[in-house]
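Fill in residues.
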């Protein structure tokens, strides 16, 4: 395989790091856009050429969602071109390592798969001079950030490539929208930027898709797909400014997690409406350390502050955390009603009729509303991802807001009178 003709954008990817390029001072390059637009191939070639232009006897990483996709999408297409340019490639398949040499220069390219949160540990401890992240939008943030943190060698650069996902995706928000702040070159590709595709081939691809899929995979746009659990919460107007006190009542809802994120919501009632005025959200994978029950309890106390809360509603599976709160004796604990399908319906009702309002400062809730989607199964349940704030909101609605609208009731012992009080 040889390179016969490159488009203007492909040429820019090939030489953005060269001394005579206007982009040479950039720390990263980001290529997104349509499928079959030729961005992955030129990025792979350019990455290796840059590595040998800048370094020798150095280590680099080529990452994709899986090692198999890294080989299929990046490595295999560029091998014949590299050999044609005079490079020698030793593929150590069992070690997922490419040892590439040119004359007396030699560099090592490790292959990694970033398929889930646990993948971040695979790349920990390495020292890299650069990283290429193919399909970066399909990788968890923890893996990507760990890979970038490994690039501690002076002169190292980041290379990102992806097809679009939804606008609230962390990579779109943190890298594409903040590309100037990150000092990254951003290039958006369409099929017309790939000279190897004929007009007939492009038209055939265009006929394969319609609607949202056409806009995402052919036009290369970052847009929402169908399947949002709360599609009416996609707009910024769906969220509220935090109201000023005083408030009539307070309550807390908790989705407890140690490995998974823990999400606690502080609710305040004003003029008949419950506002989510603050939240505690701790992601141990993102933070790099797990918290104990005691540490989460301190987070709960800091969230509540001086306020007198009616109760703390918790997922009934969090038995140890509930027992800890009971032992402390500061807050009343209620196990949450945990019917997912009915709960989602009730949350939808509460959001639409204004019984509850989510304040803009609750950023993790805002983020999860954009990401929470139905599973494509016959069970009619949401995907178990990006659902921790969503779960604690559901616990509040089903157990507090709707407690008086069904057969649900709470029995509390009044120790001063040695009797039971029914609500």
């Amino acid at each position: 395989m040889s390179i016969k003709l490159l488009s203007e954008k492909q040429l820019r990817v090939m030489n953005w790091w060269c001394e005579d390029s206007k982009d040479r001072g950039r720390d990263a390059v980001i290529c997104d856009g349509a499928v079959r637009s030729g961005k992955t191939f030129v990025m792979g070639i350019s990455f290796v050429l840059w590595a040998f232009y800048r370094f020798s006897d150095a280590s680099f990483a080529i990452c994709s969602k899986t090692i198999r996709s890294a080989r299929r999408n990046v490595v295999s297409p560029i091998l014949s071109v590299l050999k044609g340019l005079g490079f020698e490639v030793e593929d150590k398949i069992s070690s997922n390592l490419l040892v590439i040499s040119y004359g007396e220069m030699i560099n090592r390219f490790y292959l990694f798969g970033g398929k889930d949160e646990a993948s971040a540990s695979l790349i920990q401890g390495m020292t890299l001079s650069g990283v290429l992240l193919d399909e970066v939008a399909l990788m968890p943030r923890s893996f990507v950030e760990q890979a970038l943190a490994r690039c501690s060698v002076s002169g190292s650069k980041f290379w990102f490539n992806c097809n679009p996902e939804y606008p609230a995706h962390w990579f779109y928000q943190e890298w594409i929208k903040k590309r100037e702040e990150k000092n990254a070159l951003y290039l958006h590709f369409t099929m017309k930027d790939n000279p190897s595709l004929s007009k007939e081939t492009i038209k055939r691809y265009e006929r394969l898709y319609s609607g949202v899929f056409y806009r995402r995979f052919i036009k290369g746009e970052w847009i929402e797909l169908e399947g949002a659990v709360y599609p009416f919460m996609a707009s910024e107007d769906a969220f509220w400014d935090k109201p000023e006190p005083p408030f009539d009542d307070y309550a807390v809802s908790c989705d407890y997690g140690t490995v998974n994120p823990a999400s606690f919501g502080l609710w305040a009632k004003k003029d008949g409406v419950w506002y989510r005025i603050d939240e505690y959200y701790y992601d141990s994978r993102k933070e790099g350390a797990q918290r104990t029950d005691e540490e989460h309890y301190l987070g709960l106390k800091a969230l509540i502050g001086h306020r007198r809360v009616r109760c703390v509603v918790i997922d009934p599976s969090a038995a140890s955390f509930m027992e800890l709160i009971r032992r402390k004796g500061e807050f009343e604990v209620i196990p949450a009603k945990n019917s997912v399908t009915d709960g989602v319906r009730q949350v939808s009702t509460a959001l639409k009729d204004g019984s509850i309002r989510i304040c803009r400062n609750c950023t993790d809730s805002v983020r999860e509303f954009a990401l929470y989607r139905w599973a494509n199964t016959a069970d009619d349940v949401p995907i178990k991802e990006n659902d921790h704030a969503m779960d604690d909101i559901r616990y509040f609605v089903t157990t507090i807001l709707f407690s008086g609208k069904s057969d649900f009731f709470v029995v509390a012992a009044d120790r001063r009178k040695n009797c039971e009080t029914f609500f």
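Residues 406-423 have pLDDT under 50 and may be disordered.
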